[in-house]
Amino acid sequence: MDHLAGRITSCRACPRLVTWREQVARERRAAYADEVYWGRPVPGFGDPRARLLVVGLAPAAHGANRTGRMFTGDRSGAWLFRALFRAGFSNQPESVRRDDGLRLLDCWVTAVVRCAPPGNSPTPAERGSCRHWLVEEMERLERVRVIVCLGGVAWTSVLGLAAASGLALPRPRPRFAHGARCDAKVANGARRTGPVLLASYHPSQQNTFTGRLTEDMFDSVFATARGIVSDLG
Asked: Structurally, how many domains does the chain consist of?
């Protein structure tokens, strides 16, 4: 994972994203004017033996693009780490910087796209260019039993990767909805099951400020994940 992280952080494949992430890092937000921004692609982090994988969309311009760690230092991350803590997947309920003592327990957090995109909207081509990083990450996370997808892009991307890896998915594929579930099966008649995919609204301000996503709704997804992990072992 360390070697993969090094390769991710040196990527310059998408000119628009490189320009944007570095511009944000130079100009900075007034509240963080004295900080040195990360300004590079952001690798996933957590427990490499995790049974829970959480997949978001992309680093936030003044969150992970500033701190260098997924979901760290922004309001979406505040929601995520509280929920993970309540479900027993982290040692503390908040994280504001890389060296604040946070440890993920049986959990790995990552994203579909590794650079902060303008308007939080990576293009389809940028998502495609970043796809192989998530593939490589998932190949190394051999013990994953549950994948929580935060938002429709993560849901669609992970379903596509699951199908491409040879897992058998229900037909038609489940549409994205908060609380949606998809049980992947290992193809070719094997008895072993694949990971269970769970969908959640992304804890973006657009969803949390409007009440579209509440903490009870968010907690319910991770409680389900905890139950599945415990049952599957």
From this structure: 1
Q: Following DSSP, what letter does each residue of 61-124 receive, concatenated?
A: TTTHHHHSSTTTTSHHHHHHHHHHHHTTSBSSS--SSTTS---BSSEEEEES-SSPPGGG---H
Determine contact, residues 116/165, Cβ cutoff 8 Å: no
Supply the range of the domain harboring residue 157.
Answer: 2-232
CA neighbours closer than 13 Å in the CB half-sphere of residue 47? 17
Among 164, 57, 62, 48, CA closest to 110: 57
pLDDT band, very low/low/confident/very high, at 191 (cuts 50, 70, 90): very low
Using N-to-C axis directions, what is the helix angle for 124-140 and 2-9, rounded to 10°?
Answer: 170
For 126, the enclosing helix (H) or strand (E) is: helix 124-140
Q: Report the C-alpha gap between 181 and 176 in whole angstroms.
A: 9
Cα–Cα distance, 109 to 43 (Å, whole number): 9
Give CA–CA dist 11/87, Å, rounded.
Answer: 34
* Residue 24: Cβ within 10 Å count: 19
Task: State the pLDDT at residue 168.
Answer: 87
The stretch 152-168 carries a mean pLDDT of: 94
In terms of phi and psi (left: phi > 0; alpha: psi -120 to 50; beta: otherwise), the region of 77 is: alpha
Distance, CA of 5 to chain centre: 15
**Mean pLDDT, the chain, as a whole number?**
94
Residue 214 belongs to a domain with what CATH number?
3.40.470.10
